[in-house]
Fold:
Amino acid sequence: MPDNYVGKRVKRTEDPRLIRGLAHYVDDIALPGTLHVAFVRSMYAHAKINSIDTSAALAAPGVVAVYTGHDVAEKIGPVPCASALPELKVPDHRVLARDKVYFVGHPIAAVVAKDRYTARDAVDLVMVDYEDLPVVTDVEQATAGGPVIHEAFGSNIAYKLTSGEGDIDAAFAAADRTIKQRILHRRLAPIAMEPRGVLARYFPGEEELTLWSSTQIPHLMRTQVALMIGMPENKLRVITPEVGGGFGSKLNVYAEEALLSWISIQLGKPVKWIETRRENMAATIHGRGQVGDIEVAFKNDGTLLGLRYSVFADLGAYHQLLTPAIPTLTGLMLSGAYKISAIQMNIVGCFTNKMATDAYRGAGRPEATYVVERALDLVADDLALMPRNCVARTSLVLTSFHSTPRLVSITTVATMKQHSTRHRRSQAMRICARSRGRRARKDV
Amino acid sequence: MKKAINLSVNGVSHTDEVEPRMLLVHYLRDVLELTGTHVGCETSLCGACTVMLDGQAVKSCTVFAVQADGSSVTTIEGLAKNGELHPVQEGFWERHGLQCGYCTPGMIMTAAQLLDRNADPSREEICHGLEGNLCRCTGYQHIIEAVQYAAKKAAGS
Structure:
């Protein structure tokens, strides 16, 4: 068997349908009687909503329904955040905005119509009276006592967290030299080639719902959407057809997935929403968004004693599924492949008037790589060494865990093999135990 | 006010009444149910919607269906002949020119037209020819190799 694959070219089994245009992404699935949803989204980063007038949209031929935040607030539960951090502030994130909008792209109303052109036209007929509010875009400005986004919290700080290992103060006290450098990890839009898309079909007789979504996490979504719309989980089926890229941006449970499900139940019809690219840029999660200071303590011979990374994390206006957790992953990876006796990460998670940041390609960990590699370059530069001659670089620990167990270490191929064999074995045991349990229950 | 159009798509002729503002890509996808042509950006930037209009690669998200009246359109579904893959399709499969596959139909149509015009393109000419098509998965290297494979294959057959 291995001879057939190891070192051989393997052709992908999914390619024939993809290269012939015969594969099905969400928008390629057509159900009879499908209604189309388009969203009224905020043009303002921060504003009060004085009123929403949907009458003209509702009167337009082909428009079936228009839902606003107040229509659904009591019907659909909040968009979930799965991160648990000490004293984390979690704003009440509803599927549609009610009295305030917090970022450009914030959904305000859902227009349902017989086709996608009519739905899009009717979006322009919904009149929203906004009252501009001061906008918080910069993370340092967010924490400097300016306007507060979520007034109930009293500040724009969602959480503060210090993590690390070793005696960082001792490391800096013992250092011959120290360097401090401000670095930026720019906010970015993940931009999968296929935008997000949802198709929901409720079967009124069976009281069952099938939800097609371009997602990376159908299983988790099933649980969460069921909770949001108050439906027993066994009545909800989530199908993920072909997905045209995600890069983390589809590793989430979004407002639209619950809202479309709920609308389908209300109207007893299949409803579809396919995100436009403009919506995708504004209202699908963003990545990165860290502004921080690297501080390095080192000896004259290039030995690294301590690394401190103090960062303002731009979380956006709301938490999506993993928003607050992403910067903490940076902390777990800060040592990179190097032996550094003391490491500290200080995070200030900040609310800003933007879409949430969340998992994007490595989810906080590429940031750590940049930090530690940049730190070593700074040290090398300061000591006029070739970067590769830095002591930290030459003291890679390849076979043993170093002194910072909360930070990652390199294992050899041999230990990785041991790990994976052990993992497989324990997994097999767990599966056996589970099936035994099932049998036992059946017997009863 | 709908307008009658008459066009040939993948060798089959169609007559339909469409709104003048209906995009060609929506006509192909929603009316003819040829969903292999994808919409990625709606603004001619990404090339996922590329089809052949009278032998020219065009981005069907910024062409109205009425503009295609009287024309001949080839979509990704019409590229394989008698069950045999077009050399470019074969190249994408052989050289791992795709991952998620969403940009692939547009990439393949653009590459096919590139080879129609220039049977033996240099690497630079391939890169230039594919500038209007975006891919987020592959990093493009395998796509270029797929087109080189197709050029070689077409020359050999």
